[in-house]
Structure formats: structure tokens, C-alpha cells
């Protein structure tokens, strides 16, 4: 019986009891006693009551009045609760987004386009890609975002230290995924080794990126408005229209610097997918936004150029004959390019207090079709936006009306996201060096693991009172009782099970909250954690009859005596393979057999990636060890191809397989493998390896080039 089937009878019973309490007492009192007051007392009745106050009649009247008062209090309480529920419902309905006139017009135009367009379609050239859509210009209706974006202009993600529009948050998640793909591509297989450590390149990403991932996983994107996406501004005279005024804009107010950081991050995120988008920022503006220590990080950001001052920025943005020069002075971003050509979009951020009138004239003279100026202060040559701390634009002509919302970030959040964008290449791993100690936020399975069988135990006989509880986290997380899945309602409960499975020593309350709900202060989520754990333990106890999650000294852990965990069996096999001195082939094969799929397949929980990649690397190590010990090249090739299926982005595995194919006398198949790998990397927005045709060792000795 489902939860809903159990809940509605209780709700119906509660409603009947309330109705009985509201209707029953008045009916009984009116029938047995009559109304509490049949009329105003006369003078004689008052005198008689004063002389004899405690008579049977007066006591009856007093009790009747008291009963009516109790009923009135009950009726008042029920009325207040009903009104509060109605008010909450009305407030919720008021927050449901209704189509704006622009959206209604867009829908009508889209319908007309669907039903009225002729069969001979005309293909128009694609417009220049816009800069990142953070907000529309409130002062100029002609400069607006795409209609599709305006439907969810207030939908965003709140993180510690800022607010991001949903599309920017999704770009952050995509950039995070690229970081892990680059790390997978660069990994060089080791000999099988002991579990418990984390490679140097598997350190967790910054906390703000984890908070964005968790927020998007908890609040999936709403369905896109397919009608609205068909309509785009047709009057856009410049590539930057639809985002910022073509004449430039100044940012003032308490949220100006936070909005500047948001614009810095969103522009560089857009530059990862649109090579025509670049950004030039003066050193003074960079220091104002991120502090004096930010320049070392900024020099690793692709698409960013640091100018010494405003005059230097203007010179960089003015096209020169030849188009290219030496390395960019004062910054990095597109090495080898001294200027930003007309085919690129440049965003300039300057500090108005440091700029004079001549600087203003030079910046204002830039081509508005390819350059957009953003000033951290008033902008006399264009518009000036007042930005509050929440990122909302205030129109000076409409003081009481808030405009659209810009992405706002504090220095810590902005630096975290810029670190993800920088995607510095992971250091090359020396197979002879020991693994680095695990980072606190990326703790892997401890070496002291409960004993787990490497083979599946038989099911108990019908007369046996023992039942088998198994937790599978390799693949789709599933909790099984005697092979039958047990339904776990809450997604957070499933995540807690997976987290405790990968942390057999347990985790305290704060550690669990940081992992499951990164971002918000832990004390605000303690009740949510307790509710989730209580319901999870009750569900398991109802289906299995035993308590599986122990709680001792504020640490939660899975009881190894009552639950079998597949990832514990995998680590037992890994530990045996790392210490085996005889029959190593069987030990390596046991690691492969214990790995049916990656950890929590399809889940995007931020804490997963370091542990997931550590397990994947152990399995790849076992495949490569078997391939190196294989008796013939055909067996080697089969094992390498199986390893590629485990990680289709690893460059070393592809190089080994290509070299093996060449050694087998099939260079055409080797070329086909290299081309398929290049297409896969290109499809994932990664640059293909130029030296894939080299030997496996040669490919792995240097880290792949960054974008």
C-alpha cells in the first residue's frame, strides 16, 4: 500500500472529527438546553439572583454559557487555520508565472509560423552569438533577452555568496563536467595498488561549484517553451544587443561589484563554447572585483586579457594590420594575440574613478558592433544602472519598480567558479610515487573494511529465519531484501545510503549535511537530515525487521553484520589484487568481475566524482595489468577494448589499443580508432589529442593541452 493510500483515510477521519466537533455541540445544546440567553433579565430576576446566586437554574445557565464559549474558541481556531491555508494557496497561485504580453505575442507568432509558413523555406544566415544573458536593459525595450529566457528570468540558484540565473548555473555544471572529463582523459594507468588514497588530480572542486551542482540536481530545469524559442529579436544591430546596451553601461549601487563579478564569470563561461567571446579587464578593475591575489588565477583563464590601464585596453581592442602579435601584455587568455579582432566580441570592465575624460572618449570611440563597455561606476557616455545587493536593476525613471536581475557573486564565490573555468591541467602521475593522502572533503573507503564475500551467497531456504539485505551502489543505487527491491521514497535517503556505503567508518551530522546539501548553513538543515534518516530507518525496519543504520557518538554508519554492500566487495578485491604475490591474474580478474558499473550511475551528487573516478581507475589498472600479462596481442587488444568501454575518454588506453592494432598489421583499424576518439572528444567540447598516434608512454608523459 502506497503512502498516499495510507494518508487519505487519516485526512478524511480528521475532517469528520472536526466537522463533528463544530456541528455536534451546538445541536446538543440547542436541543437539550436551548439558547444560552433567551432575553435580557428583568429587574426582579436580577434581584432574585443577587439574593440567591447559586441556584440550580443559575448553575445551568453558567455551564451552558461556558460550553458555548468553548465551542466558539474551537470554531475560531478552525476558522483561522482555514484562512491561513487559503492565504497560502492564493499566495502560491500568485507566484505561478503567467505569460507576459511579449510571450503571448511570441506564442501567436510561433503558431502563425507553424501553420502559415510556405513550403519554400528561406535559410537565413546565423546571427553572431550573444554575450551571456544575465539581464536585459531596463532603459531600452529594444535591447531584450531572448523570449525563451524572459519566461524564467527570475528563476535562479542561490549559493553561499551569490545568486546565479539558471542558465548560468547550468553552464557551471557543464564546466564542472569538463574538468572531470579532462582528468579522465589525462589519467595514466598504474600497477594495481592499495585502496584508500586519492590521486593528486582528483581533489574535489570548490564548494560553490558543488553547491550549484546540488541545487540543480534538487530543482531540475522546467520544460522549455518551444514556442517562445522560435522568436528572437529581429532588430539586433550589434552582436551584443539583447544583453547589454550597445553604448555601454555603468554599474553603481551596493550590488555593482557583485554584478561585475557575475558578469566576469558568465562571460568567461560563454567563451568556453563561443570562441568569439573574449573579455578585457583592467588590472585596477580586477583588483576591485577579486582582490590583489586574483591576478595569478586570472592569468590561467582562457579568453581573459588583463590590461595595464584603460588606454592599454583601448589599444588592445583596436584592430591592427596583421591582427596578431606577440604574447598578450599584462594578461593571458588567447596567447599569441596582441589585439582583439573585429570577429571577436570583447567586454571591457574599467574603474570609473581611475579613468579621466580622455579615457572615456577613447573607450566610447570603440566600435559598438564588436565591443561592449561595462564601467564599475557612472558611465557618462551611455546608461548607468543602479544595482541592489540582490542584483536587481533599478530604473531611475521608475524608482518604485525593480528591473531584471543580474548574476551577483561575492569574491569567494567568484573565485571558486573562476577556478573551475581555469581548468588547470592535472599534474602527470608518476606510477612509482605513492598516492597522496585523501582530502577531507573527498574521503574514500577506509582500508579497514567489513569482511564481504566476493561471490554471491545463496538465498536462504524458506524455513530459514535469516534474510539477506543487500545494498548495491555500483550502477543504479538499490536496496534489496532477499533479491527484491525495497522502495526508498526520498532521493536524499538514497544518497545517504550511497554516502554511508562509501564511508564505512561512518559520518557525523555535519559531514552528512555538507555532502548531501552543500551550500546552506548546516544548522538550517539538521531537522531535514533527522527527518530523512528517521524515515529511512523506519522503512528498512518495516521491510527487514532490523536496524541497519547505527548511530553512536553522533556518527551514522551501516551495520556490516546486517547489510552486504557491493562496493565493499570491490574494495576487498582491490586490496587483495594489490597485495597478491601469486596468481595475480585471478586477483586482477576478481576486481573486474566485482565492478558491474560505475558508482551511482547517472547521479550528479557533487561528493561522488572523486570516489567514482578512484574506483574507475582501480578497475582500469586491473585491465591494463591483465593486458600487459596477456599471452598474445589479440588478448591484449580485447582487454584494452574492454577498458575503453569502462572509460571511453582516456587517452592512454586509446593509444595502447591503436599501437596494438598497428602491431597486429591493421593500421586502418588503428586510424579508425583514433578518428572515433577525436570525434568523441570534440563532441564533449574537448580538444582532441594531437599525439595520439605516438606510443602509449609518450602520450601519457605530458598532460593534455587545455582549451
From TrEMBL:
Residues 565-700 form the Bacterial transcriptional activator domain. Keywords: Membrane, Transcription, Transcription regulation, Transmembrane, Transmembrane helix. Residues 322-334 have a biased composition (Gly residues). The chain crosses the membrane at residues 12-33, 59-78. Residues 441-452 have a biased composition (Low complexity). GO terms for molecular function: DNA binding. It comes from the Bacteria. InterPro entries: AfsR-DnrI-RedD_regulator, BTAD, TPR-like_helical_dom_sf, WH-like_DNA-bd_sf. Residues 454-467 have a biased composition (Basic and acidic residues). Residues 126-146, 218-245, 318-341, 428-467 are annotated as: Disordered. One of its GO terms (biological process) is regulation of DNA-templated transcription. Gene3D superfamilies: Tetratricopeptide repeat domain, Winged helix-like DNA-binding domain superfamily/Winged helix DNA-binding domain. This is Bacterial transcriptional activator domain-containing protein. The lineage of its organism: Bacteria, Bacillati, Actinomycetota, Actinomycetes, Micromonosporales.
